[in-house]
């Protein structure tokens, strides 16, 4: 079961990294429009959650239902604000993106440390991870800069972060494959010895 989840996890993180690269390219090419559109989409999603929460709790009734309706309304109001004034959320996006990129770098850093002694190029993943963390921290601290400039920086950092993450994933997959081959070779050797 554990090996199955590992096999499923790698392709999903690879797909996520590729999607991040595409989003990074969009932010790089269309910074202003991308941020406004992204903010409005997030606002619509929050409104949808609020409406669903309110409707489900309205049909249930009772004290808990009234509380749920209140939660739904509290979700709808900021969602409407973001749809009408996306610049409110746009000012927060660089901070969130910096945080996400830094976390992405920390995950890659942990994965790189796991390659020590198993892969001679482990230090490249380590270096890329440290640079990713530094870029995420820079973005987090420079969020007050102009939104379009920050959007372009976010795009570049998302691309860099994803490429470095993909590199580490492929190195880990290579090490895992070599270990499996070595384990299979030992099993075959043990069976030949037993037959003798």
In short:
The chain has 196 residues and is mostly helical. Helices cover 90% and strands 0% of the residues. The protein has one domain (2-195).
Tell me what you see in this structure.
With 196 residues, the chain is mostly helical. It has one domain. Helix content is 90%, strand content 0%. It contains seven helices and no strands. Helix 2 runs antiparallel to helix 3. The longest helix is centred in the C-terminal third of the chain and has 49 residues. The chain is flat. The two termini are 34 Å apart. About 3% of the residues have low confidence.
* Helical percentage: over 70%
What coarse outline follows from CA principal-axis ratios? flat
Distance between the termini: 34 Å
The average pLDDT is 79
Spans of at least 5 consecutive residues whose pLDDT stays below 50 are 4-9
Total domain modules: 1
Number of strands: 0
Tell me the fraction of residues in β-strands, as a range. Answer: under 5%
State Rg.
Answer: 23 Å
Largest sheet: none
Q: Please trace the helix and strand order, writing H or E for each element.
A: HHHHHHH
Count of discrete alpha- or pi-helical segments spanning 4 or more residues = 7
Structural class: mainly alpha
What kind of assembly state do the chains in view correspond to? single chain
């Amino acid at each position: 079961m554990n090996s199955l989840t590992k096999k499923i996890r790698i392709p999903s993180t690879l797909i996520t990294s590729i999607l991040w690269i595409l989003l990074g390219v969009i932010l790089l090419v269309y910074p202003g429009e991308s941020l406004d559109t992204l903010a409005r989409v997030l606002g619509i999603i929050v409104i949808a959650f609020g409406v669903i929460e309110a409707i489900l709790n309205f049909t249930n009734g009772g004290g808990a239902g009234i509380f749920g309706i209140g939660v739904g309304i509290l979700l709808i109001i900021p969602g409407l604000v973001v749809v009408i004034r996306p610049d409110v959320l746009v000012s927060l996006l660089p901070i969130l993106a910096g945080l996400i990129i830094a976390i992405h770098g920390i995950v890659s850093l942990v994965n790189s440390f796991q390659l020590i002694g198993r892969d001679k190029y482990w230090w490249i993943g380590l270096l890329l991870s440290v640079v990713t963390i530094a870029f995420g921290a820079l973005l987090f601290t420079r969020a007050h800069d102009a939104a379009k400039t920050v959007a372009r920086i976010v795009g570049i950092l998302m691309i860099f972060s994803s490429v470095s993450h993909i590199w580490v994933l492929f190195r880990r997959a290579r090490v895992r494959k070599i270990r499996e081959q070595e384990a299979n070779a030992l099993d075959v050797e043990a069976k030949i010895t037993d037959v003798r």
